[in-house]
Design brief:
This protein is an alpha/beta fold. 24% of the residues lie in helices and 24% in strands. The protein folds into 2 domains: 4-161 and 263-309, Quinone Oxidoreductase, Chain A, domain 1 (Alpha-Beta Complex), CATH 3.90.180; 169-259, Rossmann fold (3-Layer(aba) Sandwich), CATH 3.40.50.
């Protein structure tokens, strides 16, 4: 369990609560004007429970999935960072929404060319302070139907990222390298559209069917780049930070290298339509105060997908 970081304001608030000078409400007994609880990176860049300022126009977080990019930022992102972007929240009117992580302008040269994630506006945060918190500032999202549970609805954001990346993968025989959660999403999406899908993973228990010859394309969802498995003239999609690429094979076999990162509102809408049709692994759901436990399960491979609930 995470050790909380207690600020001076928190200590003052706790003392006032004991003296009965504030009416205590809420399931954690917080004062009516209290800040919200979140998982915050401390001075060493490590996640700890702490109070953060309450949003002025809040939405209640129902669930937030742990992404590999969140894990990469631990120990790297600035102190005070609240991670988490695979968020399902509840608006004031009770409607559940899957939050949109980034918003491109949709009109600049990069957006019109299909490179929305490189738009100057794209980097601006839309989920504030971050998804691993009790509430976030009101922002845009897609309504989640009642048939999709909170934890599974957190799949919409990573699925949207995969759908955008899959558009750059030619149809045919496709090798998905890495069978973590995103690799599973890629395999499911490619099978759904009719591709002949193969899957490898450093963990033998996660690996799928090995290719019986060269493939038309490879999707790199893990730090490995078996370019010799791709037929001449084929395509390699880099979807995660990968190992070194053998450029001699790219040159001699005239391979096409493509990158893809994040999603757009259009892909979020497509993900909402597709998600109920896919056969995907169930998440490991833990309360936010067990973040350290969930992080360990993810890193050790004991959990394919971890979702936290405040």
């Amino acid at each position: 369990m995470l050790e909380p970081i207690e600020s001076e304001k928190s200590r003052t608030r706790r003392t006032c609560g004991r003296r009965g000078r504030r009416r205590l409400i809420g399931r954690r007994g917080y004062p009516y004007d209290a800040d919200v609880r979140a998982v915050v990176l401390d001075a060493d860049g490590q996640p700890r429970l702490a109070d953060v300022p309450a949003p002025a126009d809040p939405m209640r977080v129902l669930a937030c999935g742990l992404c590999g990019s969140d894990v990469e930022k631990i120990g790297v992102a600035p102190p005070g960072t609240v991670l988490g972007h695979e968020v399902v929240a509840q608006r004031a009117d009770g409607i559940r929404v899957a939050l949109i992580h980034h918003l491109p302008c949709g009109a600049c040269e990069r957006c019109l060319a299909g490179h929305e994630s490189t738009c100057d506006r794209f980097a601006a945060p839309t989920i504030v302070p971050g998804g691993f918190a009790e509430t976030v500032e009101r922002t845009e999202g897609l309504e989640v139907p009642a048939s999709i549970a909170d934890a599974v609805a957190t799949y919409l954001e990573p699925l949207a990222c995969v759908l955008r990346g899959a558009e750059r993968v030619p149809r045919g025989r496709v090798l998905v390298v890495g069978q973590g959660f995103v690799g599973r999403l890629f395999a499911a999406v490619l099978r759904e559209r009719g591709d002949d899908v193969y899957a490898t993973d450093a963990r033998a228990e996660r690996a799928g069917r090995k290719p019986d010859g060269t493939v038309d394309a490879a999707v790199l969802c893990a730090p490995a780049a078996p370019l010799d498995a791709v037929a001449a003239g084929g395509t390699v999609l880099v979807f995660s930070p990968a190992t070194s690429v053998e450029l001699d094979l790219v040159y001699r076999n005239e391979l096409t290298l493509a990158g893809s990162r994040s999603a757009t509102p259009r892909h979020m809408r497509e993900a909402l339509e597709l998600l109920p049709t896919l056969d995907l692994p169930e998440p490991t759901v833990l309360p936010l105060d067990r973040f350290e436990d969930g992080l360990d399960r993810y890193r050790s491979g004991r959990a394919l997908k971890v979702v936290f609930t405040p």
